[in-house]
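Researcher: Structure for this, please.
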Amino acid sequence: MKNKKGQSVELGITAVIVILLLLGTVVVLMLGYDMVEPSHLGVMVRFGEIKGVMENGFRWTGLFTTVHRYDLRTRKAVLELTGGNSAIDKTGQYVSAVINVNYRVKPTHETIMALYRNIGKDNVIADRLNLDAIIREGFKQATVRYDALEIIEKRQEVKELAKENIFNNFPAEYFEIENIVITNIDFSDGFKKAIEDKKIAEQRAMEEENKLQVVIFQQQQKITEYKALAEQIRLQSTALTELTLRQKYLDVWDGHLPQYMIASPETISMFLPSPNLVQGG
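Model: Predicted structure, token format:
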């Protein structure tokens, strides 16, 4: 027969075993619970098989079940197209820009399961779907249709075309685009200097043209004045010539009328003697 000390040891060992079993059971049971944060959906997978989608909360999903979570909140892609990563215009001139795209995963069970099945976990979907490349190419496809000066003049038109390209090529089966913002469209320093020099040259040419037009106008005014003066002199000269001829004729006239004279009715009167002279002769 066992003594009391031996019985106590056995009881202690038994108690420890029971406690360990209980703790093990609790741990195992806890492994069957999963939690999904707010604004997320989870894909439940057991031994490589999709078992369904878990909404946000804490629940029993079963032993050996893994839940892959997908964030449904707005995501932001920011691309800086600068340097060798820039877009180009149709002449090969570099065009830089900053593009911001806000998008989100479609919040449906079918979308979440398709993402896991076809693409992978949440942290790899942007890379595997080449979202940055889609955004970059959408902008490049727009700028290459214009030259740099057209891009400057039609900046909003270029932006709208780039947005349309990005929207049309974005994987719409998985994502919804909330907005696209394109800012800081710019060109190389050399090109901007060339544009500035051209503007200065055009401004100077315009100023010279304006000066030339002023000179032409002034010359035309002078010509008009000279023509008026010449006409005035001509008329005065004509009048003076007739008076001068008459005066000279009178200066050399001896007071006797010629026996014969050819004259016009307008001039004959000046050679007729007055009644007093006739009577006095």
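Researcher: Any notable elements?
Model: The chain has three domains: 4-70, 75-187, 190-245. DSSP finds eight helices and nine strands in the chain.
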